[in-house]
Design brief:
This protein has 129 residues and is mainly β. It is 0% helix and 43% strand. The chain has no helices and eleven strands. Strands 2, 4, 5, 6, 9, 10 and 11 form a seven-stranded mixed sheet that branches. It has a four-stranded antiparallel sheet with strand order 1-3-8-7, with no helix packed on it. The chain is globular.
Length: 129
Amino acid sequence: QEQLVESGGGLVQPGGSLRLSCAASGLTLEYYAIGWFRQAPGKEREGVSCISGKNDDPEYADSVKGPFTISRDNANNTVYLQMNNLKPADTAVYYCATPEDPISLYYYCSLSPDEYRSWGQGTQVSVYS
């Protein structure tokens, strides 16, 4: 069955870097839009970055533009989120997600969690001095 698994989180100091991975089974990720989301304690889940099924027009939340980069590794059926220059405000559980089918979000992706159907279990990112 379809499954998404996030990995790569951990504890880093401000200014450090992490690369999160979203590995898929039961679906071919290159045909799907992908979104990265995060949820900090006491806050709502928010969109961080996404890439469309057409693989154009990646989007980023204003707070992470520049430091964060989303990319695909189709040979390994994996999507990455490279996070540089991390700051304490980036501390959260990070999730990847896909829509219901490859048609959804084909031309334009979305940073709204409501547009996604399948979710991984999340990976913790902590940024502390």
